[in-house]
Amino acid sequence: MPFVWIGALLIVLKWLEIGPFGQWSWWWVLLPLALAFAWFELIEPLFGLDRRKRVEDNYAKLRKQRVEAQFPAQGGAASGRRSGSGS
Fold it and tell me: How far apart are CA 17 and CA 15, in angstroms?
C-alpha cells in the first residue's frame, strides 16, 4: 500500500511540476505503481499472503462467535440497576 501512496504523491508532484519532480521522466513517477501492482498480483499470491490474511480473518470471526455464544448479552439486567446513592 505504501507504493500506491508514493505513486499518487509523485503523480501530483509531477503534474504540478513541483521541485525536481517536474523534470523526472514519467517512467520514474509511475514506477511505484508498477511495484504495487507486482506486489499485489504476483508476490502476495506466490507466497500465500492473501490466503493467510483470509484465514486469520475467518478465525477472528469464529472466535468472536464463540465468545458471544458463551457469554450472551444480558440486555435488561444492567439497565435496572441504580447508580450513585445507596438508598
Answer: 5
